[in-house]
Amino acid sequence: MTSPSPTPTTGDTAHYVLAIDQGTTSSRAILFDHAGCVIAVDQAEHDQILPRAGWVEHDAMQIWANVRAVVGGVLTKAEVNRHEIAAVGLTNQRESVVVWDRMTGEPVYHVIVWQDTRTQAICDRLAAASPRAAQAPDGAHDYDRYKERVGLGLATYFAGPKVAWILESVEGARERAEAGDLLMGTMDSWVLWNLTGGVNGGVHATDVTNASRTMLMNIDTLDWNEEICADMGIPLSMLPEIRPSATVYGYGRRNGLLVDTPIAGILGDQQAATFGQACFEKGQAKNTYGTGCFMLMNTGTRPVRSDNGLLTTVAYQIEGEAPVYALEGSIAVAGSLVQWLRDNLGIIRDSREVEELARSVEDNGGAYIVPAFSGLFAPHWRPDARGVLVGLTRFVNKGHIARAVEEATAYQAREVLEAMNRDAAATGSHLTELKVDGGMTRDELLMQFQADQVGVPVVRPRVAETTALGAAYAAGIAVGFWSSTQDVVDNWAEGRRWEPHMPEAERERLFRNWRKAVARTLNWVDDDVVE
Length: 531
Prior knowledge:
Blueprint: E1 16-22, E2 26-32, E3 38-45, E4 57-58, H1 60-78, E5 85-92, E6 97-101, E7 111-112, H2 120-128, H3 131-134, H4 147-150, H5 159-169, H6 173-178, E8 182-186, H7 187-195, E9 205-207, H8 208-211, H9 226-232, E10 241-243, E11 246-251, E12 262-268, H10 269-276, E13 285-289, E14 293-300, E15 311-316, E16 324-331, H11 335-343, H12 353-358, E17 368-370, E18 388-390, H13 398-424, E19 434-437, H14 444-454, E20 458-461, H15 466-479, H16 485-491, E21 494-498, H17 504-519
Parallel strand pairs: 1-5, 5-12, 9-10, 13-19, 19-20
Antiparallel strand pairs: 1-2, 2-3, 4-7, 6-8, 11-12, 13-14, 14-16, 15-16, 17-18, 20-21
């Protein structure tokens, strides 16, 4: 389904591109000019709903209300109207998924968030039913059952099993889905559908990057895999149309603030940051430090299957061009560990205080935190792991714990980077520097420690809002506001660089202890543990 198609204009009155960033903790609207500079920002947080251990949910209607509010807020702050906006780009928390009624627009259940682990039993069931598992010794599970087709192993992280859970657990949902009454989508699809009219002709689509995170899309052909959908019990009628990242999806609804404005770009948040960081050449990589931590390396126009615990994903696709792929290392807990220190332990009052507290001590005092709150993601993929705080003595104080929180993110990123270098060696690539972005890059202690651990320069761009900027660039390229990715390269500018300077022996001693701490997290969740 497509909405009416007015002719987009990028003439003299269209000076800006608007990005809507629907994130894990908040929704933001950011207005960018042609130089890629931020003109105005508006932001609204949404509730984190935690019904039980391991479950994380959001209210989709609250998120849509917040999106409308921040769009209005940013236009007001900038004193800009829709006629001055060339296009709108969307970026989003990727694997979080919602199922809603196509006739009423009402969700049948809360958004199930990417951090949620409730679908482990579904993943186990699918892994046990694999033909390869049937030929293996008793009790074997094949968690790579679909990996060749979709680039992903079976894990609670991805959207497909979440939809399966909703259809199995919400009364009447399966019958309504099989009757064609329900739609599903990651958060880009939910926002796009509502922006373009909702029940009055809303566009039900997604882009290749978000589709590649569902575990339902063929990574080579970029279409839905009917067999996997059938295995998970998901009717094809629920699925959005898969389209390129930079293309005109539809136009703003008649009763909204963005009437007839082209919605012209969609990228999952980490792919958007990769696009905004101008990682268009094979071998270029970025690491985003947000709620989680996500490193992507451009592998060119063919998918590279990882032998080292990484994901094969779509980096982006511009309409009329071949898709570009990436290897990804996903870390579940990074900035959210600082929030845990603030909200659960009360050791700090504001997240920005963690750096000052960590600087109050010379080192971690022997303490290590492994934040396996939802199991371990890349490169381990151990759902049975749970978080640990180890190495404690009477000497350790809250400064050392803050330092251990800071260092945990850097150690996890090093594990991913080393796995990425092993995979990339087969393609002739090797990381010589690491581009970084996200809120935690303001923390200079963390960034210096990160450079020390990975052993290559860490580089932060002048414009830190790379996720929203990437979505804006995709939308702007689709309507001709920017001519090509070369404009993105030309706009990118270095803001700060950290060079590694830690002695090799100390670097390796710290990392050796980190690996020992990781080993303590494993095999914590037994079959009889209910979460």
